[in-house]
Amino acid sequence: MTHHCVPLWQQLLAVTGVLQEVRGGRSLTPALEQVDQALRPGVQALAFRVMRSLGRADALRRALARRTPPPGIDALLSSALALLVPEQDAPYEAFTLVDQAVEAAKHDASMRPGAPFVNACLRRFLRERDALMLATDRDPVAKWNHPSWWIRRLKNDHPGSWEGILEAGNRQAPMSLRINLARTSAQQYLDLLANRGLPAERFGLATVYLERAVQVHELPGFEQGLVSVQDAGAQLAAPLLLDGLASRRAAHVLDACAAPGGKTAHLLEMGAGRVTALDIDPKRCERIRANLQRLGLNAKVIAHDAADTAGWWDGERFDAILLDAPCTASGIVRRHPDVRWLRRESDVGQLAAIQARLLGVLWPLLKPGGRLLYCTCSVFRDEGSHQVKSFVACNTDASPQASPGHLIPQFRALGRPLPDNYPGDHDGFFYALLEKRPA
Fold it and tell me: 3-state class of 233 per DSSP?
C-alpha cells in the first residue's frame, strides 16, 4: 500500500474536505471518490473513523470553542478530535496528530490564519481530556455518536436493545462473503483462502467472514464467480423467498429495487427459474448486469420505476416477488457511518410512504398462492413491522408466514466461541414473508 508514504497532514486536509461535503448533504462514497487516488485508502480509513466519533467530536469542539469557527477550521478540529477519541484505539500518537492537524491548517491558504487556534484547542483537549470527556458524556449525541432523534426513535422501537443497536452501529463491520454453492462449497473456498494466507471463518452453509478486509481482486475465484461480497443478513433474502416454493426451477421471480444485484444473483444461484431484475436507476442497472456477467448468470434487467407498472410489466403474474424497498438504511450504519448524519427524521415518514406504495402496487402482480418477501435494511419499525401490519390489515388475501421480522445488528469479534442459536454477525434488517391466499 502506498498511502503510508503520504504525510498525515495531507490526509487530514482531505478528510476535512470530505467532512465538509458530508455536512453539506453529500454521501461519503461520492465525496471519497473526489479524493486523489494515492491518498484515498488512508483518507477513507480516517473518514470512517471520523464519522463514527463525530457526535463526541462536535460536542468537544463546542466545549473548546464557544464561537463556531469558519467551516474549514471547524471540520479540521472535529476531524482531529474524532481521531483522538476513543484513546485506547486511536490510530496515531496524540501529539503527532495535533502537530499534523496544525500542519494541515498551515498548508491551506483559507485556514492558515486559524492554525494557532487549532493548536490551542487541541493542546487544551489533551491537557483537560478527562474533564472534557466527562462533561460531554451527559450529551446522548456525544455518548452514542448518533443524532438525538435517531436515539429517541430506537429507544421507542426497541426498548430492550437500543443500546446494543447503537453500539453495533459504531463498530467496523467484517467483510462477509457469500459462497456460490452452485460452483463450490464453503469448505473448498475456506481452503482457497487459507492457501492465500487469508484467515476466515465459516457461518451456516454459505457465509464466510474474513478476519481482515481485502480488495475484491485479492479474493481467490472472485472473477470466476465463486464468491460475492454480501452481508450475512442480506444473504437471508433468497432462501426466505425460495424455500417452500412449489417449483423453483419453473418459478417466475421479480426482484424489485434490485441494484446492485447481490440478491438477484443469489436467487439465480439458488436455482430460481426466470428472474426479472428491476431498478429505477439505469446506471445501477449496469452494475446488476456486471455482477450477473461475472457470475455467469442471466436475468431480464429493466431500468424503470417499479411503482409505474404500466411502463414495464408485460401482464404475466409472478410466482414470487422480492421487494427490497428503499429505506433510511438505519440498519447498515456500520458499513455506511455517514448515513446517521445525513438522514433527517422526516425521511422516515417519506420513505415509509414509498414503501407502502410499492407494496400496494406490486401485490396485484403476484399469482394466488405466490409469495412476496418485503425487506428493508432498517431497524425502524415504521419501515418494518408497522408497515407490514397496516398492509396486512388492508389486504385480506395477504397471509403472513414465518419470517425473522426485525433483525437487530449483531457484532462479534472473530475467533470468539459461538453462543447457541447465534444469528451471525450481520447488519440490521427487516424481513416479512407474505403469501397470497387463493381467491
Answer: coil
